């Protein structure tokens, strides 16, 4: 299933990309706690990405990532991104939920969910990062739980090459589009960067298979 390649989707995917430095190993599971009230507000147009600099909006609860939990089990890697608030998209709003994984051998994977009014559970895009080639993965599961303000993804280890360890990062972006003005404004949050916004998703530590 492919994500819509609209200017909005491409812009959000560009914001939610790349890698991070090395980190120590942990066993089986890890939880990254992200500071609340650190969502970044951005405004730009379809043909000009040089809008005002992003700024923290402490009043924005929607799409504010509060935690990222990773469980590396015998057969699956399960990831749960928790939010302060998560509502079903309405109108022209799109909500992007992104997971990036790194495995031994410098292999990177991206899992994007593009949730909008027509697809509240999101359109999935699972690919090899940088190569932008799709990953065929029978058994990939995702679920957006609006009642619990969470997004869960479960990936069979076989789809990742049965790695000894994984490093995982997460990020979210919520955009509203003004088609007439050809502009959009949005809110972004990285699960591991409190009060900051960079051009990559920061990865957590190594989580070894349990």
Fold and architecture overview:
The chain has one domain (7-208): Immunoglobulin-like, CATH 2.60.40. The strands form two sheets. Strands 1, 3, 4, 7, 8, 9, 10, 13, 14 and 15 form a ten-stranded mixed beta sheet that branches. A hairpin with a 2-residue loop joins strand 8 and strand 9. With 210 residues, the chain is mainly β. The two termini are 30 Å apart. Helix content is 4%, strand content 49%. The longest helix is centred in the first third of the chain and has 9 residues, at 7-15. Residues 1-5, 7-11 and 17-21 have low confidence and may be disordered.
Number of helices: 1
Strand segment tally: 15
Please give the CATH architecture: Sandwich
Shape summary: globular
Beta-sheet strand percentage? Answer: over 45%
**Can you tell me the residue ranges where pLDDT is under 50 for at least 5 consecutive residues?**
1-5, 7-11, 17-21
Biggest sheet character: 10 strands, mixed
Distance between the termini: 30 Å
Count up the domains.
1
Spell out the blueprint of helices and strands.
Layout: H1 7-15, E1 25-27, E2 29-33, E3 40-45, E4 55-56, E5 65-72, E6 76-83, E7 93-103, E8 107-116, E9 119-128, E10 133-134, E11 141-145, E12 150-156, E13 165-178, E14 183-190, E15 206-208
Parallel strand pairs: 1-15
Antiparallel strand pairs: 2-5, 3-4, 3-14, 5-6, 6-12, 7-8, 7-13, 8-9, 9-10, 11-12, 13-14, 13-15
Signal peptide: 1-27
Protein name: Secreted protein
Keywords: Signal
